[in-house]
Amino acid sequence: MCELFAMSSRLPSTVTLSLEEFSHHGGRTGPHKDGWGIAWYEQGDVHLLKEATSASNSRTMQYIKDNPFHSDLVLCHIRKATQGDVASRNCQPSLRELGGVWHSFAHNGNLKGLQDDLRFKTGRYQPVGETDSEYAFCALLERMQYLWHSGQQPTYAARLAIVQTFAADLRDLGPANFLYSDGEVLFVHAHQRHHADGSIRAPGLWRLARHCAEGGVFEGSGLQVSARDAEQDVVLFASVPLSQENWEPLAEGAVLGVRLGRQL
C-alpha cells in the first residue's frame, strides 16, 4: 500500500525531505518503488514534482534534498501500484483548479468498484490516469464545485461537511486514507491500511503536533523541519510514525481540518 505524508505550519518552514527514507522506516524493505510525488504551496501557487520511478534513483529527488524549500503546507505520496500502469500520470499528489485556487489530493488504499458506483460522479472533472485515487479526487471536486461557483471562498463548515460525507462513502469500498487541500485548509481522513502482520485495519494515519521554539528543528526518518527565525506551530501526518516521539494514531473514520499548523 502507498504511503502518505503531510505538513501544515503557522509560518513557512524550511523542509528537507527524503521520500526514499520514508519507504524504509520501521524496518520495512521499501516496496514503494512505483513512483513518488510532492506538492507544496507558496504564495497562492503550488509546486508539483512527481516521477514514475523509485525515489532512490531520482536526480530530481536528490535536487530536492540538496535544495530545501519553504512552505506552510506540504503533501507527499510514495506509490506502490495497485490500479493503473507505472506511469507519471498515475503518480500523486493530483492537482486541479477550482474557484481560482489549486486543489491537491493524495490517497492510499484500494477502492474497488469506485468507477461503477453512482455516488461518485465526476462531471467535468475527468481523470488523466487510471487510478482509483485520481478518480476519487475528481468525484470530490464535482461535489465541491457547488460551493466554489460564486468565486468566493466557502465556509470551513460547508467544506468539512462535504469531505466528511465523501469520506464515509469511500469507506464502503475499501481503505480510504486521503489528504486533500484547497490551499487554505488541509483535510485529513484516516481509515485503514495494510500492517506488518498482513491485516488491514486502523490506524491508517498518525499525527504529531509540535511547537518549535525560535530556530528549533524537528528531525525524523527522512524529514527535517526548521523553524527559521520565529516560533513555529507544526502538525505532521504520516502513514506510520516517522520518529520516536509520541505520535497519535488517528481513529478509524476520523476527518480533520488543519490550517497553519493548528487543528480547526
How does this model look, in words?
The chain is α+β, with helices and mostly antiparallel strands and 264 residues long. It has a single domain, classed as Glutamine Phosphoribosylpyrophosphate, subunit 1, domain 1, CATH 3.60.20.10. Helix content is 18%, strand content 37%. The protein contains four helices and 17 strands. Helix 3 runs antiparallel to helix 4. The longest helix is centred in the middle third of the chain and has 17 residues. It is globular and about 50 Å long.
Keywords:
264 residues; 18% helix; Glutamine Phosphoribosylpyrophosphate, subunit 1, domain 1; alpha+beta; nine-stranded antiparallel beta sheet; six-stranded antiparallel beta sheet
Residue share in helices? 10-25%
Q: Could you name the CATH topology?
A: Glutamine Phosphoribosylpyrophosphate, subunit 1, domain 1
Q: How far apart are the termini?
A: 29 Å
The radius of gyration over CA amounts to: 17 Å
What characteristic shape results from the CA principal axes? globular
Tell me the total number of β-strands.
Answer: 17
Note the total helix count: 4
Given the helix and strand composition, which structural class is it? alpha+beta
Q: Quickly count the domains.
A: 1
- β-strand amount: 35-45%
Brief synopsis:
It is built from four helices and 17 strands.
Please specify the SSE layout and strand pairing.
Blueprint: E1 3-17, H1 19-24, E2 36-42, E3 45-51, H2 59-66, E4 69-78, E5 94-98, E6 101-109, H3 132-148, H4 156-171, E7 176-181, E8 186-189, E9 193-194, E10 200-201, E11 206-212, E12 217-220, E13 223-226, E14 232-238, E15 248-249, E16 255-259, E17 262-263
Antiparallel strand pairs: 1-4, 1-13, 1-14, 2-3, 2-4, 5-6, 6-7, 7-8, 8-16, 9-10, 11-14, 11-15, 12-13, 16-17
